[in-house]
Amino acid sequence: MRTPRSRLALAAGLATVLALSGCAAPSPDKTDGSDAHVTVGLVLEPTDLNIRKTSGVALDQVLLDNVYEGLVRREADGSVADSLAKSHTVSPDGLTYTFTLNENVHFHSGNALTAQDVVWSLTQVLDDASVKDHATIAAIRTVTSPDPQTVVLTLSNPDSNLLWNLGGRAGQILEEKATNDLATSANGTGPFLLKKGAWKQGDSLTLDRNDDYYGAKAKVSEITFRYIQDPTAAINATLTGDLDVQTGVDANLRPQLARDADVKVTEGRTTDKYTLVFNPKVPALADPKVREALRTGIDHQAIIDSIGGAGVPQGGPIPELDPGYQDLTKEITFDPAKAKSLLAEAGQSNLTLTLTVANHYPTVISNVLTSQFKNIGVTLKVNRVEFPTWLNDVYTNHDFDLSLVNHAESRDFSNWTNPDYYFGYNNPTVQALYAESVAATDPKVVDEKLAEAARLVAADNPADWLFTGKSLTAVRSGVTGFPTDSTTSRLYLANLTVTR
Amino acid sequence: MTRFLLSRGLLLVLGLAVASVLIFLALRFLPGDVAQVIAGTDATPARIAAIRESLGLDRPLPVQYFEWVGGLLRGDLGNSVVTGTPVASEIAEKAQVTLPLALLSMLIGLAIAGPLGVAAALRRGRPAGFVLSGSAQALAAVPVIWAGMLLVIVFSLWLGWLPAQGFPRAGWSDPGAALRSLLLPAITIGIIEGAALLRFVRSATLGVMGQDFIRTAAAAGRTRTGALLTHGLPSVALSIVSVLGIQVAGLLVGTVLVENLFTLPGIGRMLVADVGNRDLTKVQSEVLVLTAIVLIIGTLVDVIHRLVDPRAREVTA
């Protein structure tokens, strides 16, 4: 340890510069209670703000529910709650949805929300195939407004996913008369608004409380999201007090936060599915024995340990937060000897495969996989690529052996029912079961059909689900109401409070 | 002199023209495009194609190239494909972080390299000189990232004097806070740049010390150090200016790394993000601007060298 005196000596020159730049210790610009300004660290920044065009959960995180609102809202636990709608009813045949709108709703432009804005917004999405999530509400046949407070949707066939999808991008309500540029500004009805210049691209995005909000107003006046990709820099920002909340804490760096007693780390559930896909178009992987061998050779707990424990085993395609979940982890157990003999039976004792993985995931995952596969006689070459390269090679051109990405979206089982998706999985029984689950009007039937379909998918071993991610959030004491679950896709912050 | 200036100017324009073709083509070899990035992992090929068409990415490459260059000739750097904002204004905004950072780093580098380099030369063969040039060798080899992390641990986490990362949202309207947030990053680059420069200063000084005019001054009764400081340093400064011109490119690379490490919203971090988004119109203009800066500074250094040093004028006259 250095003595205070040598510390002084060490930094004498610097102190002079500091004095010259005329600055003492930074004065806290945060006040208490409802005037509070909260700074939240996020990892991924949206490419632009256009919710109609641009994909990515980074956009959903900040703008959905906070700035834009749909008739309904997705909750952190996976349920759906009324939002712009005060209440809604669904006819017993599942073909008519009637929404009663809240009163005195205004857009951030100052104009009142009308039922016509709702009709227009949904019609826009229905009519334009290039709009993001257009297909998710395609079951809607008509959108009408019998009176200024009511919107009625009629469906061509029942769709058990409709409410959930209305809580997503496709269901967000925009103002018909607005002319603002969606890519750089936002005009919604939510509890927070985006002022001009609020998005400093490459740095931060600030939400201000909407003081004219029709419902319970937000409890803090301003929230700044700061985008910090480097995990160490993010930890430092928390330790120096620059951040009040840090999302996406790297579990391996978590012990560093322990030195600040005012920071607590919460663990939340997510639908982050780290999916290792086996390309069925590769001859070796078309053999069911080889796929089973690869899954049998993976020690999931070792992978989870390597990332600091920030995951839970996921035996099949549906994660815990989604409908149709069941524990399938016992269906396939880690057994290197069995894996080896399966490979021998398949005549693949000397197999070499290439793994294409997006380079923003921890290197340690592919390292552990490489050594686990080596144990069963499979040579794994790892090709770490930029995400756009992954999109081009794997997603678009289906040119890969094994692929690993995190499918963060919730309720995306339908990818297993689309033979053209890069999974290349084609099982008519699964497709039929999924169609039955969509058409069902009873949530219990929906669950059962999905669970059955998921079990069939898992048994075919078209992929391995390495783990479901856990979201680690560091929260400074005095900050309450920050969501813990599903924070990688949604961050509804109207209930965020600060007391200090 | 006019002929020299003309030929240098021509070389600069030619250099930029070649660079524009190389940059444009090199970026087209990157796999994946912005339409795929926008469309994400739940898009159909039809939707990707529609986005590609709406952005004009389906047009032939020569058309896209000449449209870009045509804009450049009119002083228009183009617009971001993703957000539609003008690239020039984006660069101007981010330059408010990057330019002061580069300047500050260079000043710190010079402040280290100048005195210590001369001292190392004067103490050549003695323990102090050995320690100085030895530690310069070692420091110049230190990775920027590692040096930055170490400085953060000491000055931010341990002493709590300087911010560990970030730049004030209000920018330069609070100059003190802005400067504070640039200090650690600038020291990070400055130390390593300074160590590299130190070796140049040392060898330049040694070269000058062997010159006849120093010996003459010494014969006239000056001490060796005194002769060097009054008569030798202008010559040393001249060779440092040339080296600085070359170092600019290295400095820019340094800022890219350091901006990411310290999460500073500068040109380097923007460039990395834009490549990640495959916002190629923006990337190609940004890279061309950086190339232009390096080429222009190189040309300027050449010209200054010519103006200041009479010997260089005589050679081509």
Automatic annotation (TrEMBL), chain A:
Keywords, sorted A to Z: Signal
Bilayer-spanning residue ranges: none
Gene3D superfamilies xref list: Dipeptide-binding Protein, Domain 1, Dipeptide-binding Protein, Domain 3, Periplasmic binding protein-like II
Start and end residues of each Solute-binding protein family domain: 83-410
Protein species of origin: Mycetocola tolaasinivorans
Cellular compartments per GO CC: ATP-binding cassette (ABC) transporter complex; periplasmic space
GO biological process, one term: peptide transport
Signal peptide positions on this chain: 1-24
Name used for this protein in its record: ABC transporter substrate-binding protein
Any Pfam family hit: SBP_bac_5
Alphabetical list of PROSITE patterns matching this protein: PROKAR_LIPOPROTEIN
A GO MF label: peptide transmembrane transporter activity
From TrEMBL, chain B:
Organism: Mycetocola tolaasinivorans
GO cellular component: plasma membrane
Name of the featured protein: ABC transporter permease
Topology versus the membrane: Multi-pass membrane protein
Assigned keywords, A-Z: Cell membrane, Membrane, Transmembrane, Transmembrane helix, Transport
PANTHER family cross-referenced by the UniProt entry: DIPEPTIDE TRANSPORT SYSTEM PERMEASE PROTEIN DPPB-RELATED
Top-level lineage group: Bacteria
Xref: Pfam families: BPD_transp_1, BPD_transp_1_N
Membrane-spanning ranges: 101-122, 134-162, 182-201, 236-258, 287-304
CDD domains: TM_PBP2
PROSITE patterns attached to this UniProt entry: ABC_TM1 (PS50928)
Keyword Flavoprotein in annotation: no
Localisation: Cell membrane
UniProt KW Heme keyword: no
GO molecular function, one term: dipeptide transmembrane transporter activity
UniProt family annotation: Belongs to the binding-protein-dependent transport system permease family.
Domain ABC transmembrane type-1 residue range list: 95-301
